[in-house]
Q: What sequence folds into this?
């Protein structure tokens, strides 16, 4: 029972790290980025390539799994995404679905279509008992890493100059521009960090979520649920939504396996009908 | 304004719209060509039937997207619902005759569309995307869950189709299947053409361009959206039912996200908002798929993705402008 709960928290934390970049993209630029999962996949495959093929240690591979998607994100943002911000939502959906298709086929071509796993260091394998509850070491690592990340992000957002600029830009991009904030630069940096975090999440999650070329399609809906249910006005909303989703999904699959993800999707639809702007949004601003 | 003047105005408006609804020579040629393929390309009837079904499905999305401006990422929900309905009708012998079963599946899909249309009335584009996607996923999970009825992951097997109208039995070469789907497509296309040129269709277009202003001039926006969503769902359901009847098989794949996404690609290839987009797009898409799969089997999705990205970056408006310029150049020489 408690093991499931902890597994659920680990899963939810992962989803949060994977999706928080998307929440900024959607909130800040009102841009529907269905290709967010592609950056997560990039991070996952970077880790796989480094650890399994080149024999670099898992700990050294994690930062690289952040850096590579972040650079990829900035390049993509400056070269491609920039042109699509002002377009209709339909164009944005088409554009990012196109990117997803391309990434799926490209990874299939270069890395093969079978599911891959990252070789974990032996210190992370197995379980230990914490007050009579079996906890996987790796799950605990995920919770700790993601928890620290969430706290750091919250601190940056709340207490730094960059954070207040970002919040100003989210609230009202035009006024923020008028105050001399370089919204485009803020956004490019945020996009890079968001992509990097997604990559890190992909690397950490390769073991738990499974990694194959279909990853961006399979988890697209989960990222969208986190953002749409959590709302885009703060980090707390997506975090709570991700935790709820993680615990609900793990528990649902354990207790009623035949129902699959049915409950999750139904709850999502119900929530969106009830609060179209997310559970934790501040009223209907947009 | 005097009574006579406003009468003139009304007559002028009526003339304008009836001129717009008139059949153009290119349209007649299009349908003659389509009828010609029944006799000219007997070896290609299997793939042509697939194209006709895809075209019908895309036509259904065009009614939503091109005429009402609703973005859907889960249109496969209705396609799949119709597909399973038709499969179950014939498997259990409830409605043996294919045309009747087709109509019944369409009615069921329309009922589902009516019920779920209230879900898409609220919220922004993102909410709509999520809800339509969610409905398709929920249906897929349900079909998987109730495997005693649907066959679950193995698909619905053991469907045997009775002859169409009791006379034309389905054959191995797919000739009857193609003729059947082409006739269904043509009939439904003419109905759709009638719908979009009716006052109802014109009201829809005004809702699409500005919902607030449409409401201000007295168009009941929500009622119009519910109506077109229901009609589009019926079309998609009939397309799905056709697929089941022709392949005599139906699997969970009919609800897949890829199907909804591919459908958007089809419609964008052909262009939205003029009904023929879905049909042209279906032909282009299948040809492209055939051609790309022959060059790089397994990786053809990459090129489809590239085409999508290129279309968006070039801009759909700009491409439409090029096409219009080309048309002027051809016809006004």
A:
């Amino acid at each position: 029972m408690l093991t499931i709960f902890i597994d659920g928290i680990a899963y939810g934390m992962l989803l949060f790290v994977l999706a928080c970049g998307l929440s900024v993209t959607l909130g800040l630029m009102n841009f529907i980025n269905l290709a967010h999962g592609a950056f997560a996949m990039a991070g996952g495959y970077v880790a796989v390539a480094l650890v399994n093929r080149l024999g670099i240690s898992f700990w050294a591979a994690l930062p690289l799994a952040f850096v590579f998607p972040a650079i990829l994100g900035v390049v993509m943002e400056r070269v491609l995404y920039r042109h699509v911000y002002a377009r209709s939502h339909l164009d944005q959906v088409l554009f990012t679905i196109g990117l997803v298709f391309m990434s799926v086929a490209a990874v299939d071509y270069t890395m093969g279509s079978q599911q891959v796993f990252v070789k974990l260091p032996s210190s992370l394998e197995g379980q230990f008992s914490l007050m009579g509850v079996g906890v996987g070491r790796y799950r605990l690592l995920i919770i700790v890493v993601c928890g620290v990340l969430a706290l750091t992000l919250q601190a940056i957002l709340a207490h730094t100059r960059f954070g207040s600029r970002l919040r100003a830009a989210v609230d009202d991009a035009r006024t923020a521009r008028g105050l001399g904030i370089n919204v485009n630069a803020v956004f490019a940096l945020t996009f890079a960090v968001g992509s990097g975090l997604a990559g890190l999440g992909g690397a950490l999650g390769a073991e738990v979520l499974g990694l194959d070329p279909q990853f961006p399609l399979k988890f697209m809906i989960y990222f969208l649920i986190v953002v749409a249910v959590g709302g885009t006005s703060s980090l707390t909303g997506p975090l709570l939504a991700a935790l709820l989703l993680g615990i609900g999904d793990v528990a649902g699959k354990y207790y009623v396996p035949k129902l699959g993800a049915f409950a999750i999707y139904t709850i999502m639809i119900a929530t969106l009908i009830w609060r179209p702007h997310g559970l934790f949004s501040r009223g209907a601003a947009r | 304004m005097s009574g006579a003047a406003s009468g003139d105005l009304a007559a002028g408006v009526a003339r304008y719209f009836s001129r717009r609804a008139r059949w153009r020579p290119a349209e007649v040629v299009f349908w003659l060509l389509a009828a010609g393929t029944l006799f000219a390309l007997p070896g290609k009837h299997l793939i042509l039937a697939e194209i006709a079904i895809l075209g019908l499905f895309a036509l259904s999305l065009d009614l939503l997207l091109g005429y009402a401006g609703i973005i859907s990422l889960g249109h496969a929900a209705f396609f799949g619902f119709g597909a399973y309905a038709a499969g179950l009708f014939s498997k259990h012998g409830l409605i043996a005759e294919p045309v009747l079963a087709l109509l019944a599946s369409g009615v069921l899909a329309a009922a589902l569309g009516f019920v779920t249309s209230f879900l898409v009335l609220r919220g922004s584009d993102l909410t709509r995307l999520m809800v339509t996607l969610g409905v398709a996923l929920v249906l897929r999970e349900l079909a998987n869950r109730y495997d005693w009825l649907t066959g679950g992951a193995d698909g619905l097997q053991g469907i045997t189709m009775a002859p169409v109208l009791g006379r034309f039995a389905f054959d191995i070469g797919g000739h009857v299947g193609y003729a059947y789907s082409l006739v269904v497509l043509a009939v439904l296309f003419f109905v759709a053409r009638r719908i979009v040129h009716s006052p109802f269709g014109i009201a829809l277009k005004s809702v699409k361009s500005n919902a607030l202003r449409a409401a201000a001039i007295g168009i009941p926006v929500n009622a119009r959206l519910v109506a077109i969503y229901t009609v589009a769902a019926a079309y998609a359901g009939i397309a799905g039912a056709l697929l089941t009847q022709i392949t005599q098989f139906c699997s969970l794949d009919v609800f897949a996200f890829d199907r909804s996404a591919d459908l958007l690609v089809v419609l964008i290839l052909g262009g939205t908002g003029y009904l023929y987009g879905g049909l042209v797009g279906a032909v282009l898409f299948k040809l492209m798929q055939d051609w790309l799969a022959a060059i790089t089997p397994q990786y053809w999705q990459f090129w489809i993705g590239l085409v999508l990205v290129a279309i968006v970056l070039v801009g759909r408006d700009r491409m439409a402008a090029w096409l219009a310029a080309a048309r002027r150049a051809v016809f006004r020489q």
About this structure: The CA atoms of residues 195 and 235 of chain A lie 16 Å apart.
